[in-house]
Amino acid sequence: MTETSVINNLRRSRQFVDHLKELGFYFALDDFGSGTSAFGYLKNLPVDYIKIDGSFMQEIENDSLNRTMVEMINRVGHLMGVKTVGESAETEQIIAELESIGVDFAQGYGAAMPLPLPAAGQPTPRGTTPAGPHSRVQGVRPAPRPVDPDSRDC
């Protein structure tokens, strides 16, 4: 879910996330920092990951404002018990900066090259995401849960 889509309808977003989390899904708030970045709404949205917008990674090693924004988003995420992902981690230098800040995961060519998706209908088992030398990403798709045909959620 993108930050902008959540802000546009927080109540519906919360209901959607709550319902799917009950079914075992995990959620990432994508492009955080690209919209209004009101941290207050994060308290009411039970996401598992905050993906820090890639625009902050540009010149992060030389731009103190970009670095401070990443540090701030990372710290708030960790205080909430949420894992953080640095988007657009395209170089070794960006990976090093994200590691020094304490960002949990990196997404981009510096972490791993794009890979083809598994065959249709064959989900990647939890914890087996193919990764490059700097990727600390673990599979975040939950293992399939048995469906109870008598359940009202079917």
From TrEMBL:
One of its GO terms (molecular function) is cyclic-guanylate-specific phosphodiesterase activity. Pfam families: EAL. InterPro entries: Cyclic-di-GMP_PDE-like, EAL_dom, EAL_sf. Residues 116-154 are annotated as: Disordered. Residues 1-128 form the EAL domain. Signal peptide: none annotated. This is EAL domain-containing protein. The lineage of its organism: Bacteria, Pseudomonadati, Pseudomonadota, Gammaproteobacteria, Chromatiales.
